[in-house]
C-alpha cells in the first residue's frame, strides 16, 4: 500500500482480533539513513498486481508451514523519508518458536520474491539499492519449517 | 503481448512498458529479439544474471515459454523488505 | 510491573525514540487459555528486587552480544486473564538479523533466568506451570551471538 | 539471615520468608538443616533437581557458600515469558 502506517497501531489491531494465541512476533522495516547521513528519500517501486499475489503467496506459504493463529504482511511503496516504516510482518501462534520462525521466514521470502525495488535519493544523486546475494540463499535454506 | 520494465531495467529501456509483437517463443528469444532492435534494450539485457523475469506475474526462468503469455515483465533482483 | 499495558502502544513509543535503526522486532507473550478452555486466570508470582536485576542483566547481555540501537523488556506479575499481555521484548538494530536474534535470545534468557512463576487457576483448581526442560538447553545453545 | 520461598516451595513451607539463624556454611547445609527441623521443609526440599537457589539475588549452585549472605531464596525453575 502507499499510505503511511504506524507499526504500533497495526500491532494493537492485529492482537485485538486474535483468538487463542500465546505468542505474537512482529518485524518492522524502517527507512535508515545512509552511513554518510545524506539520505533525502527512499523511493520504492513495485509491480502492481504481482505485488498483491506475491504477498498473498508468502502468507499462504507461512500458514502451510507453521500452525499460526494469524499473520499479517504490509509493504509500502512510493516516496518515504528516513525513519518512516517501510513494511511490517506479524505472526501469532500458540507457541513462541512458531511465531518467531514464521516471521523470520516471511522476511526471507519477501526480500527475494516480492516485487519491490528501492532507490536511495541522496544529495549527490539517486541509486538503486543492490540486492544481496545471500537473500536468495536465505530463502533456499528453509526446509519445510526450519532454517538449515 | 504486454511487456513491462521495472527499476533500472525500466530506466535503461526508457519506458515502463509497451505492446510488443513478436515471433519469439521463449523469454530468451524475446530478450535476443529486443536486444537486436535497439541499443537501449541491449544495454538493459547486457548482464542477464542481473535480470529477473515474470510471465503473467509469476517469476520464471529465462527458458520459459511465452507462447500463451499475456504479460512479460523484466526487472532486477527484488530489494523489498 | 504490575499494571496492564498495550503491546502496540509500547511498540509505537519504542519506535518513536529510535535513531538510525532499520529493523525492529517485538515479541509479545499473551495469556492463553488451557486446551480444555477452562482458564479463569493466570497468577504470576515474582521475586521483587531480583526481578529488576535479572531483566537489567538480560538487556545488558543482549547489548553486549549484538549491535543494537535499543531494546526493551517488560514483564507483568499479579493476576491476568486470558488474552492479556504477559510480557514483551523489543529490539532495534541497523539490520534485520541482529534484531531477530537478540529478541529470540532475550526470550530464551528470560524463560530460564528471570524470577517469575506462573500458576494457572481453572474451574477445577490451581496448578503451577511446569518448567520446560528445554528452556535451560535453549539458553545454553547460544554462543556469543548465534544459536547452535 | 533472610530466607525467602517462592511458588510451590513457598506453599509447601507455608511462609513467604523468615529470619533464620544457622551455622550452615553452604546452601546444601542450610537445606539439610531446615529439612531436619520440620516435615514441611523436608517436603519442599525432597527433590532438589526441582529446586533453584539464589544467594543475594543471584542464581547459584547448591554448594555455594552462604557465610556472608544476607538473603537466600528457594524456588522452582522459573516459568516466566
Element-level helix/strand string of chain A: HEEHEEEHEEH
SSE series of chain B: EHEHHEEE
Tell me the strand percentage band of chain B: 15-25%
Major sheet attributes of chain A: 4 strands, antiparallel
Q: Assign a percent range to the helix content of chain B.
A: 25-40%
Shape of chain B: globular
What is the average of the pLDDT values of chain A? Answer: 93
Number of helices of chain A: 4
Structural class label of chain B: alpha+beta
- Taken from the alpha-carbon principal axes, the silhouette of chain A is globular
Whole-Å distance between the termini of chain B?
31 Å
Terminal CA distance of chain A reads: 33 Å
Helix content of chain A: 25-40%
Beta-strand share of residues of chain A: 25-35%
In words, what does this structure look like?
By secondary structure, chain A is α+β, with helices and mostly antiparallel strands. Chain A is 35% helix and 32% strand. In chain A, the strands form 2 sheets. Chain A has a 4-stranded antiparallel beta sheet, with no helix packed on it. Chain A has a 3-stranded antiparallel beta sheet with strand order 1-5-3, sandwiched between helices. The longest helix of chain A is centred in the last third of the chain and has 18 residues, at 96-113. The mean pLDDT of chain A is 93. Chain B is an alpha+beta fold and 81 residues long. Chain B has helices at 7-13, 27-37, 39-44, and strands at residues 2-5, 17-19, 52-55, 58-60, 71-75. The longest helix of chain B is centred in the middle third of the chain and has 11 residues, at 27-37. Chain B is globular, with a radius of gyration of 11 Å. Strand 1 of chain A pairs antiparallel with strand 1 (23-30) of chain C.
Amino acid at each position: 500500500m502507499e499510505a503511511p502506517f504506524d507499526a504500533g497501531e497495526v500491532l494493537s489491531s492485529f492482537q485485538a482480533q486474535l483468538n487463542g494465541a500465546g505468542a505474537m512476533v512482529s518485524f518492522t522495516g524502517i527507512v535508515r539513513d545512509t552511513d554518510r547521513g545524506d539520505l533525502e528519500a527512499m523511493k520504492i517501486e513495485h509491480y502492481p498486481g504481482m505485488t498483491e499475489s506475491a504477498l498473498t503467496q508468502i502468507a499462504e506459504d507461512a500458514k502451510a508451514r507453521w500452525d499460526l493463529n494469524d499473520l499479517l504482511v504490509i509493504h509500502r511503496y512510493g516516496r518515504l523519508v528516513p525513519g518512516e516504516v517501510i513494511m511490517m510482518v506479524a505472526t501469532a501462534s500458540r507457541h513462541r518458536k512458531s511465531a518467531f520462525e514464521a516471521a523470520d521466514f516471511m522476511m526471507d521470502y519477501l526480500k527475494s520474491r516480492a516485487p519491490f525495488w528501492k532507490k536511495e535519493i541522496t544529495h549527490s544523486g539517486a541509486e538503486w539499492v543492490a540486492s544481496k546475494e545471500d537473500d536468495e540463499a536465505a530463502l533456499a535454506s528453509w526446509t519445510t519449517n526450519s532454517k538449515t | 503481448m504486454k511487456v513491462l520494465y521495472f527499476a533500472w531495467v525500466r530506466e535503461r529501456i526508457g519506458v515502463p512498458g509497451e505492446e510488443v509483437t513478436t515471433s519469439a517463443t521463449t523469454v530468451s528469444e524475446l530478450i535476443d529479439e529486443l536486444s537486436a532492435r535497439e541499443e537501449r534494450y541491449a544495454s538493459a539485457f547486457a548482464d542477464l544474471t542481473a535480470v529477473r523475469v515474470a510471465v503473467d506475474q509469476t517469476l520464471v526462468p529465462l527458458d520459459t515459454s511465452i507462447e500463451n503469455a499475456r504479460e512479460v515483465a523484466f526487472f532486477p533482483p527484488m530489494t523489498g523488505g
